[in-house]
Amino acid sequence: MSTGRDSRLCRAGEDLAREARLLCVIPFHYRALRLHYLYEVVRALSELLVRRVTVVVMTNTTDDDELARIDRICAHFLDRQDIGIDIHPDLDDPWNLGWCHKPILARLFMGDGAYTHFVYLEDDMRLSHWNLTYFMGARALLARQGLIPSFVRVEYNFSDADVYATDWLAQAQIAGKPVAEAAGQRFLPADNPYIAMFILDRALAEEHVATRSFDRLRSREVMDWDPLARAAMGLSFENVPAGFPSRYVVPVDADGQVMTPAWIYHLPNNYANAPAEIPFGKTPMTRLFV
User: Fold this and answer.
1) What domain of life (predicted)?
2) For the chain, how many structural domains are there in total?
């Protein structure tokens, strides 16, 4: 299996990433036991080799000590002008916290040209520089086909030291799947396109704000997922090219396996290490497609 780390995708993406200015928004329903995940997410964002990273943490808490802990995590890695805490204490449903990023996208990101990319991440998703360079390079290749480069959430199994797909229930058949090709690179649709995050450049952001997926209620017409999952859909089910199940595709190597720059780490590792009767997180990444 080829890692793809030195692929054309990542090499092209390196140049694009250097000039990127990212506005990153993270929903964090306050629980002290999950602060260490937030720490890892913010640290990873601060390590991206880009021109600028701004992080806004959306939270439900109004407690001064709890807010100070969130702020302290961010301040370890970011300049003060690139830290924001957006407080939402009176939500009808706590799952709707994820939807509070939509006004930030419309107002702060679309309102001026300070940022080139908008990143939405659930509070336990680690976006690496390798992930970002792959996305940047693949986005440039796929734009004309109406497809969007995506990721597969992965987890580490402590028993066998292998890596598993968080959201896949079984191996996927390559036969019969639509294939996209660009500059010699093959891309396949994921069986489950949910990835608990999305990245939008300015063109994708302009498209997103005009879709049903941008609205909490109307998004149910697109996909009847739970509210938090729908908040992370982005454009996955909007303006889908003919023959594809969603806009999202992932790069595969010569063996038909997802290249490692498209593996995005789900920090809790809770599905890969759960009992066998829980079906998620049981398909090895090295045997995802057959």
Assistant:
1) Bacteria
2) 1
How far is residue 123's CA from residue 62's CA, in Å, rounded to a whole number? 18
16 touches 132 (CB < 8 A)? no
Maximum Cα–Cα distance across the chain: 55
The domain that contains 48 carries what CATH number? 3.90.550
In a domain, 1, yes or no: no
The span from the CA of 41 to the CA of 109, in Å, is 20
What's residue 2's pLDDT? 55
pTM: 0.96
Burial of 206 (0-12, 13-18, 19+ CB in 10 A): exposed
Domain around 35: 8-287
CA atoms of 98 and 96, how far apart (whole Å): 5
Give the separation between CA 190 and CA 199, rounded to whole angstroms: 17
Query: What span, in angstroms and rounded, lies between the C-alpha atoms of 67 and 279?
Result: 36
* 92 Cβ contact partners less than 8 Å away, ≥ 6 residues apart: none
Predicted confidence (pLDDT) per residue in 111-166, tens digit? 888 999 999 999 999 999 999 999 999 999 999 999 999 999 999 999 999 999 99
pLDDT of residue 9: 79
Report the amino acid identity of residue 43. Answer: R
Total residue count of the chain as it appears in this document: 290
| Strands (DSSP E) found in 51-162 | 52-59, 83-87, 117-121, 125-126, 148-149, 152-156
pLDDT at position 111, please? 86
Q: How many CA atoms lie within 13 A of 248 on its CB side?
A: 20
Q: What is the pLDDT of residue 7?
A: 73
Given a cut of 50, the residues of the chain with pLDDT beneath it are none
